[in-house]
Amino acid sequence: MRELKILAVVVFFALLTYYGVEPYAHSVMHKDVEGYNFTYDGTADIQEATEALEEAQASGRNVAKAQARLEVKKAFWSEVDKIAKIPGNVANGQAVFGTCLACHNGAGVNMGGVIPPNLDHAGALYDKRYLIAVIKDPAMASNVDHKYENTMMHPMGSVTAMVSDPQQIADVVAYMLAKKAGDVTPKAAYEEACARCHAMRYSKITQLGETPSFTDEKDELAYKIKVLQEQELVEAYMGKLPPDLSMIIRARSTHFLETFVENPQSQLEGTSMPRVGLSQAGYDKVHEYLTEIGDPSKKHREALGPWVIGFFVIFSILAYLWKKHHWRDLH
Ligand code: HEC
Ligand code: HEC
After folding, report:
1. Ligand 2 centre and the CA of 35: distance in Å?
2. How many CB atoms lie within 10 A of CB 282?
């Protein structure tokens, strides 16, 4: 009986630490950031701008500027909402998409800081409203407008002048959702959404894409130099080189990663990482890839878990019976 009591005490404290102390410590050290299920309708941005205005009012400084920013955010997202309700024409959208291909052409040429990503699966990766927003005003869409006095300065900013008619925007988004979706592998999702900024050395991905294999060492060195040059441009654009994401899945919690990718500003105010606009399905693919590379044995480990626990249960019963058997005559 005494053993059972000791066991109960041990179990009690283990559970208390696991469900009580650890989550509590976590909530004290990390602020609680709410997610929006990877939908982008401006709620988060308007909330941020409202809080900024309240802070400005409290301190009595920059009130007019904060007020103006809130109005701009509200107007922007309500415009996006209107365009989202316009039925798009896929055939007309294909013609508009030609404008996008001027930059998103797979040529691997850096434009103002990064290589424009391949849009082959844009319809499957990005949220519809985000796509509308990014064409209307890329800096606003990715919540880095505070870095740009004028949207035209953003590397994709000139799109605002090229595709400005709401119907055209609705058409090209309809086209992407219909024709640039399809099955996307976790790897392609990572390459299209993150790799222009984040290398992943465990899977030989750099800002130039997947590293080819070389037979000649000179070619290999020449390629390495190209990677370093590309990284310099990304660094100049972002202010720092975005970290390699090979092991990020182990360093950060699922909730942190989700809310960070959904809206980097929410976790790291003032960060230069732009919002990327993934939908839930798109993010799930990226997450799958981060797990595949950073924690490849996860599936195996999880499958093994119940067996290990089962083994301990059976072993404990046997040990208990064995002990009873031996002590039987001593009482
Ligand atoms: C002037 C060149 C240019 C044009 C034209 C252009 N883009 Fe881009 N686009 C870029 C660059 C550069 C980026 C990467 C920006 C960054 O990562 O900061 C980008 C990023 C994107 C992204 C990823 C957005 C994100 O926040 O993750 C999408 C989606 C996109 N563009 C769609 C389009 C569509 C649709 C069109 C046509 C209507 C278009 N682009 C036209 C240069 C361009
Ligand atoms: C346009 C460039 C860009 C793109 C695209 C981008 N990131 Fe980032 N990311 C950054 C930069 C810059 C930082 C460093 C932020 C800082 O320290 O302020 C960063 C930091 C991060 C961090 C680290 C946060 C931490 O814990 O310190 C994570 C995680 C991350 N990015 C995930 C992603 C994922 C996943 C994607 C693709 C869905 C992605 N990023 C796309 C630029 C980018």
Report:
1. 17
2. 25
Q: What is the CA radius of gyration of the chain?
A: 26
Q: b/e string for 13-28 if b means 16 or more Cβ within 10 A?
A: eeeeeeeeeeeeeeee
Mean residue pLDDT of the chain comes to 93
Closest ligand 2 atom to residue 240 Cα is 12
Residue pLDDT, tens place only, 146-184: 888 888 889 999 999 999 999 999 999 999 999 999 999
Each residue of 67-120: pLDDT tens digit? 999 999 999 999 999 999 999 999 999 999 999 999 999 999 999 999 999 999
**Token digits of residue 174:** 């309809």
Pocket of ligand 1 (CB under 6 A): 99-100, 102-104, 111-112, 114, 116-117, 119, 122, 126, 131, 134-135, 142, 155-156, 158-159, 163, 172, 196, 274, 276-277
Contact between 122 and 176 under an 8 Å Cβ cutoff? The reply is yes
HSE-CB at 3 with a 13 A cutoff on CA atoms is: 5
Q: And the tokens for 73?
A: 């955010």
For the chain, the straight-line distance linking the first and the last C-alpha, in angstroms and rounded, comes to 14
